[in-house]
Amino acid sequence: MLAIRPEDAEELPEPARSRALPFLACGTEAEPVAAQRIERRAGFEVVFAGRLVDLKGPRLALEAFAHLAGRAPEARLAFLGEGPLTPALAARVKELG
Known about the structure:
By secondary structure, the protein is an alpha/beta fold.
């Protein structure tokens, strides 16, 4: 039994819970992902690479970065990937300035 989160293992029947193993939700698309050009810049850059879905945590990454950016204005965050959260993340970036 594989469980992405501890809460998932808790949903299993009692005899199976102790056999559940943690499993990271990692993988790639069957089709190659289009290459995105990354430019070298001065300063500190954080990169989030992955599909923009809640399971991957892009909202958390953005909120955490906002705290860093308040103390390090030269820092930049780049999202490499697409997904259903793309519009919501773009809107939140505008809200955060």
